[in-house]
Design a protein that fits this description.
- The complex is a heterodimer of chains A (297) and B (280).
- Chain A has helices at residues 2-18, 23-28, 34-44, 50-62, 76-111, 116-130, 133-147, 163-189, 192-199, 204-242, 247-256, 260-288, 290-296.
- With 297 residues, chain A is mostly helical.
- Chain A folds into two domains: 2-62, no CATH class; 77-296, MetI-like (MetI-like fold, Orthogonal Bundle).
- Chain B has one domain (17-34, 75-273): Orthogonal Bundle (MetI-like fold).
- Chain B is elongated, with a radius of gyration of 22 Å.
- Classes of the chains: A mainly alpha (297), B mainly alpha (280).
- Chains A and B meet through helix 1, helix 6, helix 7, helix 10 and helix 11 of A and helix 5, helix 6, helix 9, helix 11 and helix 12 of B.
Chain lengths: 297, 280
């Protein structure tokens, strides 16, 4: 995890530095004289060698100092933190919704393997996984806000405003989780102990939930963990559709405005959460599956 | 040869996969013949007749500048499919070379290549795409590069995996013992064995590539309007939904249909070419 974080920070840092153009010139403004730009360059530490700049950036980032936004002239971290609640709510809500939908439909599909409901669930899942989220958002907005008038379309003033963005964000992941759950369940349902449980006359419900689902959870958890990171990144698109002032929108605006410190900060923030969540997912295996705990110690 | 024809037979029995192959073929024909099929030019404005609903003159209506949406969709297929095919092709080539080198050289070279791939995979797709576009700038070619770089680690891992499997086998050890050169081992034994999973993964990746490229363009970071790329056509989405719902519906539907077809085709190819991998 540490290595991945270090690598990501280096990648983001180098990429930002490969961009043609001079941040000092940008910050000082076009009408500034050369001595002002030179001063700015010294202030930003841009006259130092590259490895020293990276070290400064890294140690600053660890202390929570991501620099100052060129466009808004306020600390990057402050702005990110102000917007995190929106993004995190949508990403978490989307993950929970996608997991519930994905697991339920996946289990149903596995129970009715190769029969009608299996087909229905899998067509739905594949369709959901193939639909671009921003388009799904627009279509939901068209139906539920503009035609039916049941839900608000844009902005994020009340809890009801979260409904459409969360459904939009969950769509793709629900499809992917559903397919994963189905195949994991089918693997487990073919095992001897499931047949043994059935032979002992257990109720089908008990067999499915206690014997099959519990053992099918590992691959499901790993895909859910991966999806959370993707959903977090996916908020970039969904926040643009629904005009939500979250971290994703902040990143896109920063890119459009060439606000480099802000790009660097938001990228690093999202990537860090992504890496941390993936590591947490690995640790979760041990909680679900005692065998992994034993083999690790 | 026998193996291939058996696979073809299995593939033809899979109706869903054949149907999706035809859908993709249809879109490719639409893209190549766009100037013949499309009744209007992709950038042809008609400001008097803007925001029109569907009619016989304009099958899918017109947008805010009076451009014919059906025609733009046809020309857009050129850009969207073009980006998908070229980026996956570049991604496969770079990824395959990196994977082969990593598997053949092992040791430090392997570690360096694969750790770098891990870092690329540590960023979610759309974020990596944005990072690359930030550096390179927007436009069609840079979108291709961004999506290609995103695809590289997937293919590098895949090729390395199958190469490592093959290189373990006794007959490779034997051919090394009789003095076969590295290029003979790689191109004579390793590459043919990695080809099937590579074809399957490339097909699946084409769908992912379209999703990422159109997502970037939707954000205004990929292909720029007035180019009729499908994602870019939706970049004014919220206004479109209010004024001409069809204009917002059609490009997204095209994306969904193509991505779905690539997924189904990829699954079908896997079942047909690699029966051991067959899903139930």
């Amino acid at each position: 995890m540490f290595l991945a974080l270090l690598g990501t920070s280096l990648l983001v840092f180098l990429m930002i530095h490969m961009i043609p153009g001079d941040p000092a010139l940008l910050l000082a403004g076009l009408e500034a004289g050369p001595e002002v730009v030179e001063q700015m360059r010294r202030d930003l530490g841009l006259d130092r060698p590259l490895y020293e700049q990276y070290w400064n950036f890294l140690s600053g980032a660890l202390r929570g100092d991501f620099g100052t936004s060129i466009r808004m002239r306020i600390p990057v971290l402050e702005e990110i933190m102000a917007r995190v609640p929106y993004t995190l709510t949508i990403a978490l809500g989307g993950t929970i919704l996608a997991t519930i939908f994905g697991v339920v439909t996946g289990v149903i599909a596995a129970m009715y393997h190769n029969r009608f409901w299996d087909g229905v669930m899998m067509v739905m899942a594949l369709l959901a996984a193939s639909t671009p989220s921003y388009w799904l958002g627009l279509m939901l907005m068209l139906v539920f806000s503009l035609s039916l008038g049941w839900l608000p379309s844009i902005g994020i003033r009340t809890p009801v405003h979260y409904v459409l963005p969360i459904i939009t964000l969950a769509g793709q992941s629900a499809g992917i989780i559903s397919r994963m759950t189905r195949s994991a369940m089918l693997d487990v349902l073919g095992q001897d102990y499931v047949r043994a449980a059935r032979a002992r006359g257990m109720k089908e419900r008990v067999v499915i939930v206690r014997h099959a689902l519990q053992n099918a959870l590992i691959p499901v958890i790993s895909i859910v963990g991966l999806r959370f990171g993707n959903l977090l990144a996916g908020t970039v698109l969904v926040e643009s559709v629904f005009a939500i002032p979250g971290v994703g929108r902040l990143l896109v605006d920063a890119v459009l405005w060439r606000d480099y410190p802000m790009i660097q900060g938001t990228m690093l923030f999202v990537a860090s959460v992504f890496v941390v969540v993936n590591t947490a997912t690995d640790l979760l295996y041990g909680v679900v599956d005692p065998r992994i705990r034993v083999s690790r110690s | 040869m026998k193996k291939t024809s058996e696979g073809l037979l299995r593939f033809r029995r899979n109706k869903v996969a054949v149907a999706s192959a035809f859908v993709i073929l249809g879109f490719i024909i639409m893209a190549t013949l766009a100037p013949v099929i499309a009744p209007y030019g992709p950038l042809e404005q008609d400001l008097v007749n803007n925001y029109l609903g569907p009619s016989l003159d304009h099958l899918l209506g017109t947008d805010e500048l009076g451009r014919d949406i059906a025609s733009r969709l046809c020309y857009g297929a050129r850009i969207s499919l073009g980006i998908a095919f070229s980026s996956v092709l570049v991604g496969v080539m770079i990824g395959a070379v990196l994977g082969l080198v990593a598997a053949y050289k092992r040791g430090i070279v392997d570690s360096v290549i694969m750790r770098f791939m891990d870092v690329l995979l540590a960023l979610p797709g759309i974020l990596l795409g944005i990072t690359i576009v930030v550096v390179l700038g927007n436009g069609v070619v840079n979108t291709v590069i961004a999506v290609a770089i995103f695809s590289v680690p997937t293919f590098a891992r895949l090729v390395r995996g199958s190469a490592l499997q093959v290189l373990e086998l006794d007959y490779i050890v034997a051919s090394r013992a009789v003095g076969a050169s590295a290029s003979r081992i790689i191109f004579g034994h390793v590459v043919p064995n990695a080809l099937t999973p590579l074809v399957v993964q490339s097909t699946l990746q084409l769908g992912v590539a379209i999703l990422i490229a159109s997502g970037l363009s939707f954000l205004g970071l990929g292909v720029q309007p007035p180019n009729p790329e499908w994602g870019a056509m939706l970049s004014k989405g919220r206004e479109l939904v209010r004024s001409t719902p069809v204009a917002a519906f059609a490009p997204g539907m095209a994306i969904t249909l193509v991505v779905l077809s690539f997924s189904l085709l990829g699954d079908g190819l896997r079942d047909a070419l690699d029966p051991t991998m067959k899903r139930r």
